Amino acid sequence: MALGAAASGVLELSQLLFLPHRSSSVQDILMNTVGFGIGLMHSTPLKRQPLRHPALHEPSLLPC
After folding, report:
1. What is the DSSP annotation of 1-64?
2. What's the pTM?
3. Residue 3 in contact with residue 38, Cβ under 8 Å?
4. How far is CA 30 from CA 13, 33, 58, in A?
5. I need a surface site. Which of 12, 39, 41, 60 has the fewest CB within 10 A?
6. Which of 40, 36, 27 is nearest to 6 (CA)?
7. What angle, rounded to 10 degrees, do the helices at 26-48 and 2-18 form?
8. How many beta carbons lie within 10 A of that of residue 38, not counting itself?
9. Residue 64: is its pLDDT beyond 60?
10. What span, in angstroms and rounded, lies between the C-alpha atoms of 49 and 20?
């Protein structure tokens, strides 16, 4: 979560400094961090399950 908050803070700060026509706020950083956390929660279960190829694990699908 700290990585998401830091990245969001850097992006918002650069937006504030280099893009004067855009606005940045603490709420933007908070929402980006929440989005990072949600994405992290959704991607973590995918990393824990190894990918399996059905042809290698099903005897009926093996070539004769």
Report:
1. -HHHHHHHHHHHHHHHHH-TTS---HHHHHHHHHHHHHHHHHHHHHHHSPP--HHHH-GGGS--
2. 0.62
3. no
4. 14, 5, 47
5. 60
6. 36
7. 140
8. 11
9. no
10. 45
Query: Do 61 and 54 touch, CB atoms closer than 8 A?
Result: yes
Token pair recorded at residue 6: 């830091």
The length of the chain, given as a count of residues:
64
Note the pLDDT tens digit of each residue in 3-18.
889 999 999 999 989 9
Q: Residue by residue, what is the 3-state secondary structure of 51-64?
A: CCCHHHHCHHHCCC
